[in-house]
Amino acid sequence: MSFPEKRNSDSGHSPSDDEKQVGDSPGAFQKPGHGDLPPDPDANLSPEEKAKIDRRLLWKLDIRLIPWLCLLYLISFLDRSNIGNARLVGLEDSLNITSGQYNAALTIFFISYSLSEPLTNILLKRLRPSIFIPGIMIAWGIVMTTMGLTHNFEGLMTARFFLGLAEAGLFPGITYYLSCWYRRNEFGIRSAIFFSAAAVSGSFGGLLAAAIGEMDGVGGKRGWSWIFIIEGIATVLIGVASFWMVFDFPDEATFLSDVDRQRVLRRLKADQQSSAEHEDFRMEYFWASVKDWKTWLYAVIYMGCDGPLYAFSLFLPTIIRGLGYSGTTAQLLSVPPYAVAAILTISIGYLADRTRQRGLCNMGVSVLGIVGFAMLISAASPGVQYAGTFLGALGIYPCISNTITW
Fold first, then answer.
1. CA-to-CA separations, 149 to 35, 95, 113, 174, 365, in angstroms, rounded
2. In CA terms, which of 72, 78, 267, 348 is 20 to 30 Å from 25?
3. In contact, 229 and 106? CB cutoff 8 Å
4. How big is the CA angle at 57 (ends 54 and 63), to the nearest 5 degrees?
5. What per-residue confidence (pLDDT) applies to 23?
6. What are phi and psi of 404, to 5 degrees?
7. Pairwise pLDDT comparison (272 vs 309), residue with the higher score
8. Can you tell me the distance from the alpha carbon of 176 to that of 169, in angstroms, rounded to the nearest whole number?
9. At what angle are helices 170-179 and 184-212 packed, to 10 degrees?
């Protein structure tokens, strides 16, 4: 990939020796060889000066990457879980479906999601992030919009199946993508900030559903239909914008100078991150991971986090309705538990990065989740049950990002 020619400054000075060494001369960015540590463009600087440059580089990466990726995951989680909000505004009655059929529509999403998820990172590397991520967003945005046009159970099931198929690539893809930019001890807090968008989407989703639900009857459509249509159209528009907002891997990132690209690659290789190599997919890597017992252990740990996550996010509006609230009130009461969960998710990410005790952090917050779910099951008072939703959220959301980073 070629880059614009770097011209001499107005003072007439030629590029510095360091710039020449790392290829910051006309059109000369060179990728280091496999396993090679790139030349250090800051070799002649003091440790204090290097630390200052490193902080500035991290800030540049954070500003250009994290906010937009958080928005993408917020939209993703909103689109997969808004069916719980739609249920409160007449979804089951309009489609004439039973509770069992509603649960089947929830389940089929995860069947297609889990079947296609293992293939998505291969496609991410082959198609590039700036093509793959916007492409799948546009695809699931179209599916979400059509879900608002369904008239029966079969249409809902079909839409949910293809929604899972299209959404499967975002979370694992962005998790891998972030690991190509940050060192291990920097990854946890950023993964937590990224995943906190899931909790924020719960808060935002409740508020948005409460507002959209008031459109019931507009254009001859029910409020639940407008939830899917409006949020689907928004996803398509954000997907189109992502062609310009999602960048490729560090060695091809256009928002970095040649020297900064070398710095990012050097940081990753010094941290012994294989993602710095931008290697092609090989089946031997796949089979090595399948044969590694740690793969299966972490899969079990992640299942233990993920099951409660979706049970909570998909059924929280229904749980609140069961406490005696309905309509807009139920939608709005679903907001606070997600908000506090987002705060704790980021806090645990920061703590785990500093202590490097991710297992202990998981165990600690899981106790909160156990207590919360016990309160939901056993308590008779609506107030105690609602308090249990807070503890349940606090016990679930921090574990997901922490486990992925681990």
1. 53, 11, 22, 30, 41
2. 267
3. no
4. 140
5. 40
6. -60, -45
7. 309
8. 11
9. 150
